[in-house]
Amino acid sequence: MPDGRRYHISSAVIAVRPDFMVGVLEALAGFANVEVHGCDKGRIVVVIEGPSTGVLGDTLMRISVLDGVIAANMVFEHVELEEDEVHGQRTDAA
C-alpha cells in the first residue's frame, strides 16, 4: 500500500424518540466529527468522519447512549487514502 493516511467516512441512521429530537440534534452539533444530513419522523441521518474505524465506532457508541436515542446504526463506510501534496499539487499525479 502506498504511503499516506487513511481517512474513514461513514453514514449512520439514528432512531430517536420524537420528544427528544431537538436535544439529540443539539448534542450532535457538539460532535466535531459528525454532520447531520437530514432528520424526519424520529430518524436522523449523519455522516461520521475520522482516521480509523475505531474512531467511527466510538463516535457511534457515544451517539447511541444519548438520551432519547433508540438505536444508532452504521449504514455505510468508505475508506480513502490521503495522498501527499506539495504546494497544493498531488505528488502521485501522472
TrEMBL record:
<protein>
    <recommendedName>
        <fullName>Chaperone NapD</fullName>
    </recommendedName>
</protein>
<keyword id="KW-0143">Chaperone</keyword>
<comment type="similarity">
    <text>Belongs to the NapD family.</text>
</comment>
<comment type="function">
    <text>Chaperone for NapA, the catalytic subunit of the periplasmic nitrate reductase. It binds directly and specifically to the twin-arginine signal peptide of NapA, preventing premature interaction with the Tat translocase and premature export.</text>
</comment>
<dbReference type="InterPro" id="IPR005623">
    <property type="entry name" value="Chaperone_NapD_NO3_reduct"/>
</dbReference>
<comment type="subunit">
    <text>Interacts with the cytoplasmic NapA precursor.</text>
</comment>
<dbReference type="Pfam" id="PF03927">
    <property type="entry name" value="NapD"/>
</dbReference>
<keyword id="KW-0963">Cytoplasm</keyword>
